[in-house]
Amino acid sequence: MMNNQPxxxxxxxxxxxxHRQPGTWAFILNxxxxxxxxxxxxxxLIMLGKLAQGPEAYDSFIALAKTPWVKFGxxxxxxxxxxxxxxxxxxxxxxxxxxxxxxxxxxxSFLTLALIGSAIFGYFMFFVH
Amino acid sequence: xxxxxxxxxFSIYRKKADQPPFYQDFSLEVDPDEYVLDGIxxxxxxxxxxxxxxxxxxxxxxxxxxxxxxxxEKLTCITPIREVTKDGGxxxxxxxxxxxxxxxxxxxxxxFYLRMEQAHALQVVPVAQSTLPYESLRFPDDGLPHERxxxxxxxxxxxxxxxxxxxAANYQGPAALAAAQQTYSLxxxxxLLALVDCADGVWRCHSGFECTAVCPSxxxxxxxxxxxxxxxxxxxxKRIFRQDG
Amino acid sequence: xxxxxxxKAHAIIIGxxxxxxxxxxxxxxxxxxxxxxDRGEIASGTSGRTHGLLxxxxxxxxxxxxxxxxxIQENMILRKIAxxxxxxxxxxFVALNEQDLAYGPRFEVGAQQCGIEIDAIAPQKxxxxxxxxxxxxxxxxxxxxxxxxxxxxxxAFAASARFFGAEFLPYHEVENFLTNGQGAxxxxxxxxxxxxxxxxxxxxxxxxxxxxxxxVILKKIGASVVVTPTPGIMVAYDCRLVNxxxxxxxxxxxxxxxIPQRRMVVIGTTSYEAEEVDxxxxxxxxxxxxxxxxxxLVPRVATCKQRGVYMSARPLIGKGEAGRxxxxxxxxxxxxxxxxxxxxxxxxxxxxxxxxxxxxxTADLVCQKLGISAVCETAxxxxxxxxxxxxxxxxxx
Lengths: 129, 245, 397
Known about the structure:
The complex is a heterotrimer of chains A (129), B (245) and C (397).
Chain A: H1 22-51, H2 55-65, H3 68-95, H4 103-128
Helix pairs in contact in A: 1-3, 3-4
Chain B: E1 6-14, E2 22-30, H1 36-47, E3 66-69, E4 72-75, H2 81-84, E5 90-94, E6 101-103, E7 106-107, H3 110-118, E8 124-126, E9 147-149, H4 157-161, H5 163-167, H6 174-187, H7 190-196, H8 210-214, H9 221-242
Parallel strand pairs in B: 1-5
Antiparallel strand pairs in B: 1-2, 3-4, 3-5, 6-7, 8-9
Chain C: E1 10-14, H1 18-29, E2 33-38, E3 53-54, H2 65-81, E4 86-87, E5 91-95, H3 98-114, E6 119-121, H4 123-129, E7 139-143, E8 146-148, H5 150-163, E9 167-170, E10 172-179, E11 185-192, E12 197-202, E13 205-208, H6 214-218, E14 227-237, E15 245-248, E16 257-261, E17 264-268, H7 284-297, E18 306-317, E19 330-334, H8 335-338, E20 344-349, H9 355-370
Parallel strand pairs in C: 1-2, 1-13, 2-9, 5-15, 13-20
Antiparallel strand pairs in C: 3-8, 4-8, 5-7, 6-7, 10-11, 11-12, 14-17, 14-18, 15-16, 16-17, 19-20
Helix pairs in contact in C: 1-5, 1-9, 2-3
EC number (chain B): 1.3.5.1
Cofactor (chain B): [4Fe-4S] cluster; [2Fe-2S] cluster; [3Fe-4S] cluster
Protein name (chain B): Fumarate reductase iron-sulfur subunit
């Protein structure tokens, strides 16, 4: 009878969106973007540490930063920031009872805003400089 | 309403004692307007008498027949077969998540009921105060103090769908928190705020909103949890300024 | 199965519906050790699917006054002891045509004779109180009807029984009786459907409280009672259009009761005999007729969606032509008298409203047979919270 019990190990199942509704998709996105942003932060700190080593390190970093795949990675970071930040606003609002009955509409609105924002940044990153 | 019968395969989760679980398939001819529970009953009556499952009222007042149907929490007595599959399709039936499994589709609800009792959940409430504040629905109101059985039928589906209840055994859960909110609104019983104002209570919810999505009975636990947070904070602020404990 | 040494007399009850649960409570209170077995969950047979009407008895006050008096007395008791699961808003008996009106005088006399408090209400006033009532209503009487939650009523009795030491074994199907050398019943053999294992349990007396299945289970020991499973249909709609029970003012018939319950209304019922009631298919024509009957009482039902439809098999005592003419009261059978088998008692018939009284009479018989002098105390004290049923043993002491 000790089966089917809640355990922290089941957290991987959070990331299965099948049969669930937008609230869960927002929940999943928030966690994935959080992990992504944390990873980015770690990389960023490592990179800053390397820069402290002198001008040659800086130049080689800038060369790397202009390659398309790094730019794309940075676009992902911006997307993650927008999604996480805007959904965070949604969660802050609903946590205090504002908009709970329209949480799905809030989710779609903020996701749309985040994607539009990502598209704008992407345009400037890839087609303007 | 159609007279044509559908051929549907019910794939039922089976588990007895310490034996490993498995899925057992049953082929049924069903009227698509029949309910999933009708199919399960026929399986017990005519195919396998060892199948165990809970049911009582057959019309969503008792809350006994909640199960996972094709991966989603459903109250099987009011879920028409046409809602979950098509002719020639499959219906996978499993017990609710996050409750210990006793046998086949029967889960252990003792912890759940203990939490409902601790939250002083009400079964009979005044009709005039029985809907959510934002609902525009109104029942006939002749000004007399009528009472009715509460919306929450204690089916446990909200707990089954909740991602926090999946991983945190001590989380009070959406049903108990919703009950505490409603009882507090009707009785102003301060001890309920103390009960829920803790890490395993109202602050543990992470806004998955699945509870509200699967509730068959208009409880809206997510709304109630958020409202309960406001009530808790209001009370805390009052305590700081008035020191009335 | 480990059995502690019993100094108390031990009774086994087969069937955990209203009767079995209420009887377990009564016997446990009187000091017996009680074990209740059911092949399913509590109230998974007829009891769970009952209409949910807490009868005032007015329905029977003309043609079945014995039943009516039992109902009103038990109605008053259950109101107090089972308040936790009852919507108590009263009911209306409504006349919609001349035949209904003609029933009125007999109804008034009958109610008075049975001690049921009824009030004639002007149709205009009744429609103010219940705006969704059929506007063509000609006469209305108010009666002390109520509505209960079937599963929770059974659980409340079961929780109270457990509080006094009774043990419940759901999903344990009784497969046969044990007999001693003198042909008396000494226990039962059961199939534990949770673990798919089999075992036996002995007792000083076995009570057959299987309701509509009372005859079926007695075949295993060559005993019999004449109980006719008599199914009827119920249809639930997803709108609470009335606060009171709406009854048709006339002789009891089909589709003449509409109850509110939570956010629904439920119309019932029909009546026909059946042999086999382990599974009762829904009769679509009856569902359609019920829909018409509901709309007759409360026209707005036509705008509501069907939420559920289900059949329930009443246990009616005796065999008859039409279900309605059989008595709805209950009967205890001592099988020593009817079949020469000691140690076995059957209780069947009755209705949900009178379950406590059925239990009292049966417990009186059981105690008399076992030589126990203890009186019934179930009418005076509120039942335990139905949620306590689910607590592990020892947790609710």
